[in-house]
């Protein structure tokens, strides 16, 4: 059993004027993370909003899970760049993330098996904490590139 995770979220402002004030997330030993609402709700587009954070959390969790599995089966991954697309839907006046598409381009060392890497990527879904904690449909669309010798 791992230890609990504590995040502190601090907001200051005046709801008499706006819900978007100075908001920052903190965690012990990490740099502060400026947060806001989405600009469509009057938020500051230069700060991370909850949708951004969800996409980043899902992508990061999937990536590190895949990299650990790849290392375990001796696949030499040289580069991993993901593009995450979130699709939102509004039903009964409630908005939620309906679908997340992960589209990483994964570069493998010369002589690597793209099929073996794909199997490990698909297996990552089983072990990714964020994916296992979500009711969101997750679409996997990786591209594997084996570097030339």
> What's the helix-strand series?
EEEHEEEEHHEE
Describe the sheet with the most strands. Answer: 3 strands, antiparallel
Portion in helices:
25-40%
Q: What would the CATH topology of the largest domain be? A: GMP Synthetase, Chain A, domain 3
Q: How many strand units?
A: 9
* Average pLDDT over all residues: 93
Main CATH class of the largest domain: Alpha Beta
Second rung of CATH, namely the architecture of the largest domain: 2-Layer Sandwich
Using the CA coordinates, give the radius of gyration.
19 Å
Topology:
Blueprint: E1 8-12, E2 22-26, E3 33-35, H1 50-72, E4 77-81, E5 84-91, E6 94-102, E7 105-108, H2 114-127, H3 129-132, E8 137-140, E9 143-146
Parallel strand pairs: 6-8, 7-9
Antiparallel strand pairs: 1-2, 2-3, 4-7, 5-6
Helix pairs in contact: 1-2
Provide a descriptive summary of the structure in words.
The strands form 3 sheets. A 3-stranded antiparallel β-sheet has the order 1-2-3, with no helix packed on it. Strands 4-7-9 form a 3-stranded mixed β-sheet, covered by helices on one side. With 149 residues, the protein is an alpha/beta fold. It folds into 2 domains: 34 residues, no CATH class; 97 residues, GMP Synthetase, Chain A, domain 3 (2-Layer Sandwich), CATH 3.30.300. Helix 1 packs across helix 2.
């Amino acid at each position: 059993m791992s230890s609990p995770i504590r995040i502190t979220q601090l907001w200051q402002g005046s709801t008499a004027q706006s819900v978007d004030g100075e908001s920052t997330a903190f965690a012990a030993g990490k740099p502060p993370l400026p947060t806001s609402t989405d600009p469509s709700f009057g938020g500051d587009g230069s700060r991370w909003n909850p949708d951004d954070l969800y996409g980043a959390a899902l992508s990061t969790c999937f990536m590190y899970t895949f990299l650990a599995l790849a290392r375990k089966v001796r696949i030499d991954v040289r580069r991993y760049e993901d593009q995450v697309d979130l699709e939102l839907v509004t039903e009964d006046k409630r908005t939620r993330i309906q679908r997340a598409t992960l589209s990483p381009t994964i570069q493998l060392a010369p002589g690597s098996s793209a099929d073996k890497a794909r199997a490990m990527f698909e297996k990552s879904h089983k072990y990714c904490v964020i994916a296992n904690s979500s009711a969101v449909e997750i679409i996997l669309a990786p591209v594997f590139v084996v570097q030339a010798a």
